[in-house]
Amino acid sequence: MKKYKVNPLTLLYVNMLFPFVLMFTSSLTAIIICFLISSGFLLFFNEKKRLLKFSIIFLIFLLIFQFQDYLDSGKFKMFFELINYIALKIIPVLMIASILFYNIQTSELLSALNNLKLPKNLIIGITVAFRFFPTFGHEFKFIKQTMKMRNISMSILKPFKSLEYFLVPMLFRCSLLADELTSAGLTKGIECDVKRSSIYDVKIKKFDIFIMILSTIMTIGVLI
Fold first, then answer.
1. Do the Cβ atoms of 14 and 96 come closer than 8 Å?
2. What is the reported pTM?
């Protein structure tokens, strides 16, 4: 049986389509459709545990959205409704973004972006940005483990002290990561003007076109 593979550009397209559509509608149906499409992508990449986590979070916010009319009126209610509504809209986007962060190789993303004939500096910037968030999460866990070994805890009651414990080591780690990234880029010939070759087949195929058209019809169809 032929195994289909989603092009990174397809994921980027869908992840840009969702915010554009949700920006022009307040329909809960549109949000649910975007969530279902994102769920389909996670199932396609066999990320069932991640889908379960996102589904639980989405359902919690959805239940809050349904029962928020029972809250007392006032500024707090308006603020609470706004935060909850933004969370519902952003969850489908985060679901697709998580695939780009954790399931797509850097070289695969770089090769896909090269096919768009974009400036090299822009391509490198986008690639580094997509790799920053997983690295940031890893470094955050590393800092928390180090603090735990030294009996240092982060507390909401002491926000400035907790920020100091987190921010100072993170700045040092970011400085080291920048040096390592520069060295890795130079080693891989990032300054070379010759077109890069790739082991990944990153061409837009009929399957990708089908996904993009279907996602567009399902999301924009709600606006019509």
1. yes
2. 0.77
